[in-house]
Design a protein that fits this description.
The chain has 680 residues and is an alpha/beta fold. The protein contains 22 helices and 27 strands.
Length: 680
């Protein structure tokens, strides 16, 4: 559930951001446009070979006088450009009123048949001298075209003599930046071309335009003799501001010859008459979008924004966000970090690559925002989750393991959750003499509890010092293991030595409590080595770290025989085989523990008493028992009493009783001495 919670918070964040992205609000649209701007700012600039600008600059105003000039000045300039060999001439200048100085006729004569395009502009007023153009329609484009309330055109004399009349108005985006230009606009039912489209029409000699419209809007437009121009659904093209234009001042007639064969735009740029607009690459004169749009059409380099791009970008952001959530929750931190950096960098580079090579406009901003926010959120969630997991592990295991093991479990929580299968050495211990101890406290439960806690502390410390793991406390009993989770190549030896250290710790503890008048206690321990299955086990509501396996149950049953055999520490044969060169062992018995039919050898450790003669006599006693020579075995047991420091005298007493019992039994001829236990 906690894991799902951590996932869910990141998924909720992704869902919220995705919903914002799908609804396409103002902020997202602004970010998208700014991402396109940034790409354009790193575009490689080139100089136009098709279009040149004759600037009506400050020098020209100084020479020819106050603006607006007498139109004979414009007419003379047109004739000079014609003489210099200029191509089509564009005048993005409004001639909506008659020349107060009477130069209209001269200008009309200059316009007539000279491939001149003059301007008209969209207004919020009613039409005045507007010049519409015919359109051949496939579908109905009118609902999709940008609509002006009115159109202000040239005076009739100039409008009739000019070869073309085009709209010079630009339509800024929501942030005031001119990025797209409508190629066709409308006022009511009438259609008006941009000055760029009108230039193409005049150049080809076509009388009208063609527009193709489908259900989702306009898809393309053209003049019949010119290749199709793909637009967005509103008949706009994206402008690529990478073109510089050769410029000549209107006063430099001597240099007009450099404009031979080029489309020439006579544009006001002087302060006070030349307006400034915002573009993706900075502030530009108002003529620039029209010049850029015309250049893009001529070169076939209009930028492309596919109709499905927004959806695919949105879907990509979701997919990459989900991938980051998955990696952040399952993969290593370094991979998440690389992806959080690599995805935004890849998105930006990919957008720039497709812009430069295919002129595609791809919005990288949304992918960057989504993956960055979701990625960091997912990583933070995982960090928080792991922090609390580590704290929980520390809380769960601090009292059961050494700091080294706790740190290992914190760094590898999967060792707990997923579990492991490996060879381990298991030790069960149990307190001896609790009844008289409990009676000595009477009704002082608090005092008894404190003493028992002290006992558990005493037997636990050797385990922690040996980097063992306490699996559980069961009343006055305990269970611990070696070689898990911390690797211990010599775990059988570690387990036996730890068992001996636990017995010494009990002796020291007894010295303390007997001074307070309390009866001494004892401890029995059983150790076995074998395969174990370790992990967090239990129900979904309550669970703990535990160990399962046949070796575990065998260790428990070996420990249960300590009291019966009168031994403090018993080990199974696997532990003995691995450590027989390290400790002094005596074979205790060969028995089949409850639930088993095959006997196992059990040994006890004799601490610091290595009498070889006594050991040989002990081995002879057990052979006599196996050979059913019970009287001799009894005699040898009596002789061994007091040997080995008296540590196992109770064992020999038990063995004498067993031999006496066996003498009364009708044993089979193939009896092998294996004692079959009927109790745990």
């Amino acid at each position: 559930m906690k894991q799902l919670t951590h996932w869910a918070t990141a998924l909720i964040t992704l869902s919220i951001i995705s919903f914002i992205g799908w609804s396409d609000p103002f902020v997202k649209e602004t970010l998208r446009l700014k991402s396109f701007d940034l790409i354009q700012q790193y575009d490689v600039p080139t100089t136009s070979q098709d279009i040149a600008i004759v600037e009506i600059d400050e020098r020209a105003i100084e020479e020819y006088g106050q603006w607006p000039w007498k139109r004979t000045v414009i007419a003379d300039m047109i004739w000079q450009l014609r003489e210099a060999g200029a191509g089509i001439i564009i005048l993005p200048i409004l001639f909506s009123e008659q020349d107060r100085l009477g130069g209209d006729m001269d200008l009309a004569q200059a316009l007539a048949g000279n491939g001149i395009i003059i301007a008209q502009t969209g207004t919020s007023q009613t039409n005045k001298n507007a010049v519409p153009r015919g359109v051949a329609k496939i579908g109905d484009p009118l609902p999709w075209l940008f609509e002006w309330d009115g159109m202000l055109g040239p005076i009739e004399l100039l409008g009739l003599n000019a070869d073309g009349v085009g709209v010079i108005s630009t339509v800024p985006e929501i942030d005031g930046v001119v990025r797209r230009l409508p190629l066709l606009m409308r006022v009511g039912e009438e259609v008006f071309p941009s000055i760029a489209m009108e230039t193409i029409r005049v150049a080809t000699g076509d009388p009208s335009y063609q527009v193709k419209t489908q259900e989702g809007g306009i898809t393309a437009m053209r003049v019949p003799s010119y290749p199709t121009i793909k637009t967005d659904s509103f008949g706009r093209i994206w402008l690529r501001y990478n073109k510089d234009f050769d410029t000549v001042s209107a006063t430099d007639e001597d240099f007009f010859w450099t404009l031979e064969g080029k489309i020439v735009m006579i544009a006001p740029t002087a302060e006070g008459i030349g307006s400034i607009i915002a573009t993706p690459t900075g502030e530009q004169y108002s003529y620039v979008p029209n010049a850029v749009s015309l250049q893009g059409i001529l070169n076939g380099e209009t930028l492309v924004r596919f109709p499905e791009s927004t959806f695919l970008e949105w879907l990509s952001a979701i997919g990459l966000g989900l991938l980051l959530i998955l990696v952040a929750n399952r993969g290593p931190y370094w991979l998440s970090g690389i992806m959080i950096v690599a995805i935004p960098v890849g998105a930006v580079y990919g957008s720039y690559y497709y812009f430069m090579n295919y002129l595609w406009l791809i919005d990288w901003s949304w992918v960057v925002i989504v993956t960055t926010i979701v990625g960091f959120h997912a990583i933070f969630n995982r960090f928080v989750k792991e922090f609390f997991e580590k704290q929980a592990i520390k809380k769960q295991f601090a009292g059961y393991c050494s700091p080294t093991i706790v740190k290992m479990l914190q760094e590898n929580p999967a060792m707990i959750k997923d579990g492991m299968k490996r060879e381990i050495s298991i030790c069960f211990s149990d307190l001896r003499g609790f009844t008289p101890l409990g009676e000595s406290f009477g009704d002082d439960v608090k005092g008894l509890t404190k003493l028992m806690n002290g006992y558990m502390d005493a037997i636990t410390q050797p385990v922690l010092d040996a980097d063992g793991m306490i699996i559980k406390y069961i009343g006055d009993a305990s269970m611990h293991i070696h070689n898990a989770p911390l690797d211990d190549e010599y775990h059988p030896m570690t387990a036996v030595q730890c068992g001996l250290d636990m017995l010494k710790a009990v002796e020291k503890f007894n010295e303390k409590i007997t001074k307070d008048g309390k009866p001494a206690i004892g401890m029995g321990a059983g150790i076995n080595t074998g395969l174990g299955y370790l992990g967090e086990m239990g129900s979904t509501k309550r669970h703990s770290y535990d160990v399962l396996g046949d070796a575990v149950s065998t260790a428990a049953r070996i420990e249960s025989k300590c009291k019966e055999y009168g031994c403090l520490l018993l080990v199974g044969e696997n532990t003995y085989d691995a450590t027989k060169e390290d400790f002094f062992y005596l074979k205790v018995d060969e028995l089949a523990v409850k639930g088993k039919t095959v006997g196992i050898r059990i040994y006890t450790v004799i601490d610091d008493h290595c009498d070889s003669d006594a050991q040989l006599k002990h081995e002879l006693m057990q052979r006599c028992y196996t050979e059913m020579k019970f009287d001799k075995a009894i005699r040898l047991c009596k002789e061994l009493s007091g040997e080995f420091g008296g540590q196992i005298d109770k064992y020999y007493e038990m063995w004498i009783e067993r031999c006496e019992y066996m003498k009364t039994q009708d044993l089979p001829d193939n009896w092998n001495g294996v004692f079959i236990a009927t109790t745990k």
